[in-house]
UniProtKB/TrEMBL annotation:
D-isomer specific 2-hydroxyacid dehydrogenase NAD-binding domain residues: 113-288
CDD domains noted in UniProt: GDH (cd05301)
Enzyme Commission no: 1.1.1.79, 1.1.1.81
Keywords on record: Oxidoreductase
Species the sequence originates in: Megasphaera paucivorans
Keyword Oxidoreductase set for record: yes
Sequence ranges assigned to domain D-isomer specific 2-hydroxyacid dehydrogenase catalytic in this UniProt record: 30-320
Record InterPro entries: D-isomer_2-hydroxyacid_DH, D-isomer_2_OHA_DH_cat_dom, D-isomer_DH_CS, D-isomer_DH_CS1, D-isomer_DH_NAD-bd, NAD(P)-bd_dom_sf
Protein name as it appears in the record: Glyoxylate/hydroxypyruvate reductase B
Pfam families hit by this protein: 2-Hacid_dh (PF00389), 2-Hacid_dh_C (PF02826)
Single GO MF descriptor: glyoxylate reductase (NADPH) activity
Family, as annotated: Belongs to the D-isomer specific 2-hydroxyacid dehydrogenase family. GhrB subfamily.
Catalytically driven reaction(s): (R)-glycerate + NAD(+) = 3-hydroxypyruvate + NADH + H(+); (R)-glycerate + NADP(+) = 3-hydroxypyruvate + NADPH + H(+); glycolate + NADP(+) = glyoxylate + NADPH + H(+)
Length: 329
C-alpha cells in the first residue's frame, strides 16, 4: 500500500504520534529547528502533502493553503488553532483537527497551581530559605489567602469549569464572563456577570478564552484600571489576548498587584524582556498541558485525526465541522 505523504511543520512531535502514523504515512518534510518555520518555506513544502501536522509557530496561512492542492487534512496536537487560517481551510474543504478535552484537567491544575504560587508568594518564600533568612528569625508576610476571595474567569469553557471546581474547593466565589451565560450556573455554583463587574469584583482574574480576532489584545490598560489594586492576573489562554506593554505598565504602577502567566507574547520570551525583570510577575514556559500522560493523550488524538482525515473519514475533534468528512465516507 502506498503511504500518505505528510509534512510536519512543528519542531517537536511526541514519539507516540510518530509511532501511530508510521505504518500508513511517509514524512516527506519535517521541521526540526527551534525557530518557527517561515511562511515561504512552508508554502514550498506543502505542494505534495496530503496531511499537515501544524501547531504553535506554524504559519498555515491562506497563501500556504493556496499551494496545498493535495491536502486532505490538517492536525494540531494542541487545543488552540489560531496558527491556522480556519476560514481559508474551510474554503478549500480541508478539515482541521485539534485536541480539546484531553488536556482540560491538566491545564486547570496548572492554572490553580500558579494562582496559589502568586497568591501565597511561594517562590519568594523558597528564595527566603535559600538565602539563609529563615535563620534570622524575622518572617515577612507571604501573600494572601484565597478563601473568601473571588475568582473571575474570562471564558467559561471546559477548562474554566474545571478551574472553577478547584477555586471553590479553596473557598473562593467564582464569577465569569462569556459571550453568553451558561445554563448550569446553579449546579456549578458560578455566576455570570458583565465584564465591568468581573473586573471590579475579582481578586484573581483568569484569562481562559481562545485567541481570536475579537480577543486579540482585548485585555489592556483600560481593563487593568478597572481592577482592584490587590488583584492577581492569571493567563492560561494565549499571550496574544493581553496587551503586554499595558500589563507591564499595570504591574509597574501598582494598578494590579501581581501576574502569573503560563503564556506570553512572544513565546519564548527573550531573557532581557522587561516582563521578566518585574518582581511581581511570574512567567512560566507554556507548560499547561506538559505532563507525560496528557501529551501522550494529545499525540494519540492528533494522530487519529490525521489518519481518519487521510482516509476520508470524520475527524474525532474538528474545528471546522462544516467540512469534516462524514463518518462512513
Amino acid at each position: 500500500m502506498e503511504k500518505y505523504k505528510v509534512v510536519i511543520a512543528v519542531n517537536y512531535i511526541h514519539p507516540r504520534f510518530l509511532e501511530m502514523i508510521a505504518p500508513y504515512c511517509e514524512i516527506i518534510r519535517q521541521w526540526k529547528y527551534p525557530e518557527q518555520i517561515s511562511e515561504n518555506l512552508l508554502t514550498q513544502w506543502i505542494s505534495g502533502a496530503e496531511g499537515l501536522v501544524a501547531g504553535q509557530g506554524s504559519p498555515v496561512t491562506a497563501k500556504v493553503l493556496a499551494q496545498a492542492t493535495n491536502l486532505k487534512v490538517i492536525t494540531l496536537p494542541q487545543t488552540g488553532y489560531n496558527e491556522v487560517d480556519i476560514a481559508a481551510a474551510t474554503a478549500y474543504g480541508i478539515p482541521v483537527g485539534h485536541t480539546p478535552g484531553v488536556l482540560t484537567e491538566t491545564v486547570a491544575e496548572l492554572a490553580m497551581a500558579i494562582t496559589l504560587c502568586a497568591a501565597r508568594d511561594l517562590i519568594p518564600a523558597h528564595q527566603f530559605v535559600l538565602e539563609g533568612k529563615w535563620m534570622e528569625g524575622t518572617y515577612p508576610v507571604f501573600g494572601m489567602d484565597l478563601s473568601r476571595r473571588t475568582m473571575g474567569i474570562l471564558g467559561m469553557g471546559a477548562i474554566g469549569i474545571s478551574l472553577s471546581r478547584r477555586a471553590r474547593a479553596c473557598g473562593m466565589t467564582v464569577i465569569y464572563h462569556n459571550r453568553h451565560p451558561r445554563t448550569d450556573d446553579t449546579v456549578r455554583c458560578t455566576e455570570y456577570v458583565t465584564v465591568d463587574e468581573l473586573l471590579r469584583r475579582s481578586d484573581v482574574l483568569v484569562a481562559a478564552m481562545p485567541l481570536t480576532d475579537e480577543t486579540r489584545h482585548m485585555i489592556d490598560i483600560n481593563w487593568f484600571k478597572k481592577m482592584k489594586k490587590t488583584a492577581i492576573f492569571v493567563n492560561i489562554a494565549r499571550g496574544g489576548v493581553v496587551n503586554t506593554s499595558d500589563l507591564i505598565t499595570a504591574l509597574q504602577t501598582g494598578q494590579i498587584a501581581k501576574a502569573a502567566l503560563d503564556v506570553s507574547e512572544p513565546e519564548p520570551l527573550p531573557v532581557d524582556h522587561p516582563l521578566l525583570a518585574l518582581p511581581n510577575a511570574l512567567v512560566f514556559p507554556h507548560i499547561g498541558s506538559l505532563t507525560e500522560r496528557t501529551r501522550r493523550d494529545m499525540a494519540e488524538l492528533a494522530a487519529r485525526n490525521l489518519l481518519k482525515g487521510l482516509a476520508g473519514n470524520a475527524l474525532e475533534t474538528c474545528v471546522n465541522e462544516k467540512v469534516n468528512y462524514s463518518s462512513n465516507s
